[in-house]
Amino acid sequence: MKHFYFVAPTLVVAIALAGCSVSSNDISESAPQATETKASGVPRASPSVMPSQDPTGTGQQWVDAVMQQWLDFEGARSIQGFIWPFNLVTRWESTEPGEIVLHVDDSITGNAEGISDYSATSELDSIAGVMMQSVAEEFPTVENITAVTEDGTLSVDYARGKWERSQPVSMRDSMMAADPRPESQLKGQAWADEKMNQWFEQLGVQGPEGLVSSFRLITSWESSEKGELVIHLDKSFPSSYEVGSGMMTVEEDLQGISVTILDNLYMDAPELEQVTAVVDGSGQAKSVDRDDSWFTAS
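^ thats the sequence. predicted structure below, dont judge the formating
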């Protein structure tokens, strides 16, 4: 299986945004542990409601069935069979098609577990992310899970796309076949703007200023050929710098930027065939294509 964002054996190039989010590793390490405990006033999803009975992705029966899938996936009889903080979920509802809202006890804001560097927002993100991992395959109609405190002061969304991007490369083609994305009909600069805005939205930022490392040096983007996205970086782009125990070269860094963007947009932008990162005024550039080994399962 290929692992993305590696541009050299010991050098990792990846998007790292301010704040915390659930990665695929975070989800697997923090998944609830099933225990046999008796429910006490906590609503339980009805085991009689199956996905095929309500494929529309809306309504209380549908969200109850999704919740039951989460319980079954973890081997729990009720929410109280989960470990903290997952057992703080008090109720659930669906207000829009494909949308699930998990209401979480307000005590999550108080760090009752005494965890260092505690973040209630990160814990809410974990709750929504772990549930998405548990139900996404069985319920393709689940598009977004929101974990919100009962008083409404804190809220975190976990979109299906985030789960999809965490899956092995070998699963991408089958997921796209099961849920094909439409190709954009825009062209030229309008198309390039759409793709970059799509990427920024995925990452939860307004633009390059919300990113870190070399990604902050992105100054503009364009498209002169159909399916090809060119990313321009400021001429102050470093010639090399230390990363871990090695040195990152310009070519490696540019490749990492191109791979990251194409990887993140791979499923949502099926018409995107190539991404090229260019350092303005230097003539240095690196392109990656959709059919490169980075995106081929092995």
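The chain is about 30% helix and 20% strand.
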